[in-house]
Write a structure and sequence with these properties.
By secondary structure, the protein is α+β, with helices and mostly antiparallel strands. It contains 9 helices and 7 strands; from the N terminus they run H-H-H-H-E-H-E-H-E-H-E-H-E-E-H-E. The relative contact order is 0.20. Bound molecules: zinc ion.
Length: about 325
């Protein structure tokens, strides 16, 4: 089975598991941390509260909140379905780029910023080389997964080998290392997926740093374009509570400590609230669409969602 399909399926958690992890995260944010953490904790705690007079539900709109992340993913998938209506599956790929392995959580925003810039600069450089790159457009999201030294031998081989080459010395000054990466949905109508892969490998030459999965491959057989976009968007914006590790007994989820996730979300929240730091978008040349660097439209549909009586969004 394909690694990312496998990973995606095996890291889907029940709502109960995610709610429990969310409660642990809120407790960690409140416990022994600074004002930024406490402010984020308050937002998370207020999420889902209803104004008793107007009946409106308030959402925290934070990536730390799996409820809001789920809504955001759904909304982003819908936007991509509109944007890419009528395109061919062979012109779309899901790209994963490993950006670095800092051992200090405070370095993550900078790794994201540099990764975003490098991606944009690489596409611009390709456009200078060939007009076929003018039609390439992309939407992606950043991610950062913590791990400790004991987990490395149990990771999938691609990640293990990448860490051997690029990882920090494990770990003299911190408990966790961070696998910082981005998942990008790329529409490349006049470039084949191998051309996309080759261009990105010029930017990130480390072995295993770039993975390109064309939506034309077998695992998408029978899926409509809309479903493929929904699947890839949800994969890029998945809410996970741990890492899939493979031991002698097969695979199992090793749950991320809440204190690590609290560190991560505090650092990101201190740079910017909401999903903006997590996102990268690039339009094709001559596109009339507005700049996606401004993310005010990202939340426009959020208020349409309401809690149903089971406590889920509907
Ligand atoms: Zn929320």
């Amino acid at each position: 089975m394909n690694i990312s399909t496998n990973y995606y399926q095996k890291t889907q958690h029940s709502t109960i598991e995610l709610e429990n992890a969310r409660a642990r995260l809120v407790a960690a944010l409140r416990d022994g941390r600074g004002e930024t953490s406490k402010a984020l904790a308050r937002r998370l705690e207020d999420c889902g509260s209803t104004d008793k007079w107007l009946g409106n539900t308030w959402y925290c709109r934070q990536p730390a909140c799996f409820r809001c992340k789920r809504i955001y993913a759904r909304q982003q998938a819908k936007a991509l379905q509109t944007r890419f209506a009528g395109i061919a599956k062979c012109d779309l790929s899901l790209v994963t780029i490993l950006l670095g392995v800092p051992s200090d959580v405070r370095d993550i925003p900078d790794v994201w910023r540099k990764g975003r810039e490098a991606l944009r600069n690489r596409v611009k450089a390709m456009r200078r080389e060939s007009v076929r790159w003018n039609d390439v457009q992309l939407t992606g999201w950043m991610e950062a997964d913590p791990f400790d030294a004991a987990q490395v031998p149990l990771m999938q081989s691609r990640m293990r080998e990448y860490l051997d080459e690029n990882g920090p010395p494990l770990f003299f000054d911190s408990d966790a290392g961070w696998i910082v990466h981005m998942h990008v949905i790329v529409h490349h109508p006049r470039v084949d997926w191998q051309g996309v892969r080759d261009a990105l490998q010029r930017q990130w030459p480390a072995e295993h740093a770039v993975d390109v999965q064309p939506c034309s491959q077998a695992k998408y057989d029978g899926q409509s374009m809309d479903v493929a976009l929904f699947t890839t968007t949800n994969y890029a914006l998945k809410s996970t509570i741990g890492r899939m590790l493979y031991g002698e007994q097969g695979g199992a989820i090793d749950t991320h400590p809440a204190s690590w996730m609290a560190d991560l979300h505090t650092v990101i929240y201190s740079t910017s609230s909401g999903f903006r730091p997590w996102r990268v978008v690039m339009d094709k040349v001559g596109s009339r669409t507005r700049s996606h660097d401004e993310d005010s439209e990202e939340y426009s549909d959020l208020e349409k969602y309401r809690w149903n009586r089971f406590g889920n969004y509907c």
